[in-house]
Amino acid sequence: MSGHILIADDDAYMRKLVTLILSREGFEVTSVENGFDAVKRAGELRPDLILMDVMMPRMNGFEAARQIRSVEECSRIPIVFLTAKDQTDDKRLGFQLGADDYIVKPFDTEELLARVSSRLNKSRQVLLDREAARVETLGQLIVTLAHYINNALAVIDGRTELTSETDVKQVKKLKETVLRQSRRIRMVVESLEEMASRRELATTDYVGIKNTMSNIVFLMPT
Question: Which CATH code fits 4-107?
């Protein structure tokens, strides 16, 4: 297995133990001793998974989980509570705050590894599914915009074929047609350039691309 795991626990021995267990399995591990630092490091590192105790100084694990979930860039990071708090109400609160799993101390090493691996696999599959949907919709965007560009070029070609070089009115209409269709093409290109400059083509999700495609087509002059 591979992946970057952030451990948050105020018990130094527990941090060392879990780090050793995970490192032996090939995971990269970063550890912190309180919830405040967990929130900070989660934003900086964007780990693949967070293992977090509940009872910690400065900020407890429940509050840290709430803050991590409130940040868009960190909202999909799997959070697994690893804690001695074994009451049903504690578990319920943990899941309500967005935890993906809840492991009670003392834990079994094999169970810990199994749950960590399971959560990582599910998280990665979700990312793969989202990327597949994004790429599919991006393809639809390209096909649709290519269609509008080709239509604009076809109008220009058709008008050119029908225009007599000696007919001033026809030449004037041809000029108007070329300018109008050129604006349509330019709008498409500028919209795509703007998306690329903001990295939207690389990061926009399924819904975002569909909305962008609809907006570009709607704004095209006829």
Answer: 3.40.50.2300
